[in-house]
Design brief:
By secondary structure, the chain is of the alpha+beta class. The protein has 5 helices and 3 strands, in the order αβββαααα. Helices cover 40% and strands 18% of the residues. The two termini are 27 Å apart.
Length: 137
C-alpha cells in the first residue's frame, strides 16, 4: 500500500465497517462508474428523520470499498437533511485524504447516497434537494 493513503484509509480497507446487505432497509440504491466499472450499493434505515443504520456493498478498487465504509460511519445518527448536503470533500477529509486519481470513489459514494435519499424521499412523497451544485458533490 502506497504512502499516498492515510492510516484511516488502511484501517477501513483492512477492517471495513457496516459491509453487507440490509434486508429491511428503507432505501437501497446502487450506482456505478461507467469508466472504471466500480459499483457501490448503499442501504439506509431511517427513524424519525435520522439515519439509524447504513450498510454498503462495494465492487471495485480499494478506495471504493473505503469510501463505502467511511460513508456508513458518517451517516449513522445524521439527519436526512444533513446527509443530503454531505459533500465529496467532506468524505475525502474523513478518510484522511485520497490521491487525486482516486477521488472518483468518493464521487461514486456521494452519488449513491443521493440516489438512496431520493428513493427515501420519493417513498415519503417529497423531493430530496441538495443545496450543492453537481460539481460540488
Amino acid at each position: 500500500m502506497s504512502a499516498d493513503y492515510s492510516t484511516s484509509f488502511k484501517d477501513h480497507l483492512a477492517h471495513p465497517r457496516n459491509a453487507g446487505e440490509m434486508p429491511d432497509a428503507d432505501a437501497v440504491a446502487e450506482e456505478a462508474n461507467p469508466v472504471c466499472g466500480d459499483r457501490l450499493r448503499l442501504a439506509l434505515r431511517v427513524r424519525d428523520g435520522r439515519i439509524v443504520e447504513a450498510r454498503f456493498l462495494a465492487y471495485g478498487c480499494p478506495p471504493t470499498l473505503v469510501c463505502g465504509s467511511v460513508l456508513t460511519e458518517m451517516l449513522r445518527g445524521m439527519s436526512v437533511e444533513e446527509a443530503a448536503v454531505l459533500s465529496r470533500q467532506q468524505l475525502i477529509a474523513a478518510i484522511g485524504g485520497l490521491p487525486s486519481r482516486r477521488t472518483h470513489a468518493a464521487a461514486l459514494a456521494i452519488e449513491t447516497l443521493r440516489a438512496a435519499l431520493s428513493l427515501l424521499e420519493a417513498k415519503r412523497g417529497r423531493t430530496c434537494r441538495s443545496t450543492l451544485a453537481p460539481d460540488q458533490a
